[in-house]
Amino acid sequence: MPNEAPKQRRLPETVKLEETISPELLPDILIVNDPQGKTKYLTEFDTSREATRYKRVFPRLDDFAVRPEHGSGFLATQIEASLDFTDAELIGSGSHSRVYRPRLRLPIPLTARSSSGDVTVAAKTPLSDANSHRMLRHEAKTYSSALPSYLTEDWTGYHFIAEAMYDGDGVLPVAAVVPKFYGFYIPEHWSYRGLLSPIMLIEECGTPIDRENLPPKDRELLYSFVVRLQRAGVCHGSFKSVNVLQQPGPISADPLERSLDTPTFRVIDFGRAETRKDVSEKEWRILCREEMDDVKDEIYGRKKAMRDPVSGRKYTTRRFFRLSAGLV
To answer: What is the CB-side half-sphere exposure of residue 160 using CA atoms within 13 A?
Structure first.
């Protein structure tokens, strides 16, 4: 009996965008379709009649001088893409922002392995107050110019991080730390900027971790993430379990083969981040020390005094700490 050809798997209607897009290929213009008004601030402002043009602010194209100023061809023209908020699910919200899952139609020459040609992204929008706007713009600038691209990629193998040996051996996978960044956009026409919210696009990375049920090695990995951020010159400024997302992994596997038994993690929400270049060395050392104290409390639990039932010796430990010896 002749061998039957393997059946081709049907493409899903949409897929999650997980790939890196070079800054020169990110859209300069987003055509935003928002019939349900998820991006508008005033109820009387009608967003259902026509799509709105948004322009990219970060990353700045001038920072990546790759496109010719003159001549013909794809890279000599503005790149446009469409972002559709129709029935976009609200996937996160906080005191300063909301996060939706809209569909993005990638610009040529990029393509998606989906039947519709669309991908999904996380679109973060600020609330209407000035502080929320400032924080989102600061977060976008941090993604664009302060966080190195290698922190968005998963690498093969392991590395040793001495500073992460708080409750482990410091041998950890070279995992991605933060989501991929796909740009920060504002309405192109100035008259819309008080009526419609800015939009920051990043990789969607799952849901907040369950701090109570993290395996010890995952706690060590998350602790190392903050160490790696500080090595890169960034203090997160608000490290909490709600700002650490997990999703089935590994990302290198086919989506149908991923599992929460092998999760991947990402640190999000850099609206309060501080960068080393913007503060003095003394201020930087204080920021890092205080942040690591907060991270220990968040990942391992607060310090508590204990007494050994046999020897009667007093020692200090943490709720999720593996070692029974005293700690700093």
So the answer is: 2
